[in-house]
Specification:
- It is a single chain.
- The protein has 2 domains: 30 residues, Single Sheet (Rubrerythrin, domain 2), CATH 2.20.28.100; 80 residues, Immunoglobulin-like.
- It contains 1 helix and 12 strands.
- β3 and β4 form a beta hairpin.
- The structure holds fe (ii) ion.
- Fe (ii) ion binds next to loops.
Length: 127
């Protein structure tokens, strides 16, 4: 069973799937179950380049990855920045190599939000 907002990866081909609608089935790719990505421990090595940094100005939220700017090269880049509230994705931005590893979101209410990002090499990180 999947849950909205979960992110799964195929350990064979590298496909990554974000759940937009939950269901009772199991996600399968390359003939095996996809692996649910857990957030990285924020004390883990590499945290300076991965843990999202939020700054707020009224209802405008700027998310930068991370406190030392993450690379945005073809082989190693940030794929996705998401805003979560109560563990649900409420906003997201897809990023591409060559762009800045940051996103700006306009929210009605910034209370209790968190930011999550997915690095193509180092996985999922949340602030
Ligand atoms: Fe990375």
């Amino acid at each position: 069973m999947t849950k909205i907002g979960e992110i799964y990866k195929c350990e064979i081909c590298g496909n990554v799937v974000s759940v937009a609608q939950e269901g009772v089935g199991t996600l399968v790719c390359c003939n095996q179950n996809m692996k649910l990505l857990e957030k990285q421990n924020i004390d883990k090595e590499g945290k300076e380049k991965h843990v999202p940094v939020l700054s707020m100005e009224g209802n405008k939220v700027t998310v930068k990855v991370g406190s030392i700017e993450h690379p945005m090269e073809e082989e190693h880049h940030i794929v996705l920045i998401q805003i979560l509230k109560d563990n649900k994705v409420i906003k997201e931005k897809r990023l591409y190599p060559g762009e800045k590893p940051e996103a700006i979101f306009l929210l009605e209410n910034t209370e209790g939000i968190k930011a999550r990002e997915f690095c193509n090499l180092h996985g999922l990180w949340i602030n």
